[in-house]
Design goal:
Shape: elongated
Order of helices and strands: HHH
Strand content: under 5%
């Protein structure tokens, strides 16, 4: 995996802050926050392996969570809406076949932009 890492200093302070917040619930996190702050102030290069490991973990988690969240949104939101619309007989995309229609082109009123307006766009 080829990723761009944040600076070790910003990683160190972010991790220190996260551990300080976690110390509200877990007292041992205060020790980790203090150690990370000292390392960030004195030997910031020591944080490179932790920074790389943290970003790799985040990327791996995103490969699992993103499809799950998007699937959940699709099946929890869009599928019920489409089902209700079908029950109501609504055809937003006008997909029903009509043998009596000459064309399925939609007329625009007012008409779209002039034909010559798209020449030499770049």
């Amino acid at each position: 995996m080829n990723m761009t890492l944040p600076s070790n200093r910003s990683f160190g302070w972010t991790f220190t802050g996260a551990c300080a917040i976690a110390a509200i619930f877990y007292p041992w996190a205060a020790v980790v926050a203090c150690l990370t702050a000292v390392v960030t102030l004195t030997r910031v290069s020591w944080l490179t392996p932790l920074n790389r490991a943290w970003m790799t973990l985040g990327e791996l988690i995103s490969r699992v969570v993103n499809p799950l969240v998007l699937g959940l949104i699709f099946f929890a939101v869009f599928t019920p809406v489409a089902f209700v619309m079908r029950l109501a007989g609504r055809d937003v995309l006008t997909r029903k076949w009509d043998a009596g229609r000459r064309s399925y082109w939609s007329e625009r009123d007012p008409p779209g932009p002039a034909e010559d307006s798209f020449k030499n766009m770049f």
